What we know:
CATH superfamily of the largest domain: PAS domain
Largest sheet: 5 strands, antiparallel
Helix content: 40-55%
Shape: elongated
CATH class of the largest domain: Alpha Beta
Strand content: 15-25%
Strand order of the largest sheet: 2-1-5-4-3
Distance between the termini: 43 Å
Order of helices and strands: HHEEHEEEHHHHH
Number of helices: 8
CATH topology of the largest domain: Beta-Lactamase
Amino acid sequence: MPHSNSSDTLKSCIPLVHAIGKTIGGGEVILYDFQKDPPELIAREGGITSRLPGTPATQLLCEMVQEMQDEGETMRTNYESATKSGKPLKSTTVLIHDKEILLGALSMNIDMSAMNMLQHFIDQFSGKERPDGHDEMPQNTQEFLNIMIRKGIDSIGKPVCYFDKKDNLEVVRFLNENHIFSIKGSTDNLAGELNVSRYTIYNYIEEVKNRD
């Protein structure tokens, strides 16, 4: 059973959500309650997505939190993610515990669109803006996987048919740095996009790990 003060502990974090969100600008801070089933959003500051308190946490976030717990991580900082429409984000997720009990997760997302334009990564996503002007986070692992593979490929700046081994390795390095190969089916999906075998992708992953 969760501790009786677990709800109070999370409520005490809500002012922090608003303070950080107002400070960073160009992003949002979201607090999720993992004592609820399913986990749900209980506070948000910022305007990247239109998700409101009471909205269930995405499958993608739940899977990442489970992975963090399995690996003994309390935080995952400055990883790349994206909205469903393809808007690039820099994200950090911090798990909130009471001793060994997981109470919640604090996620911070910063919109990197302007920075990417300055770095000449304009239009590297093919997704379109939602008609209502709001973005949403990917709702499941497959959506996120497709977005991140497309981001890695588009960052090379030329069609896949002109890729050489060096280009393929850059895509694999990007995906490996962002923990994408821990997602089921990622190797097969990438192999299909790059028009190589899954065994070639395995070799690329090993080569990237050895170089790094």
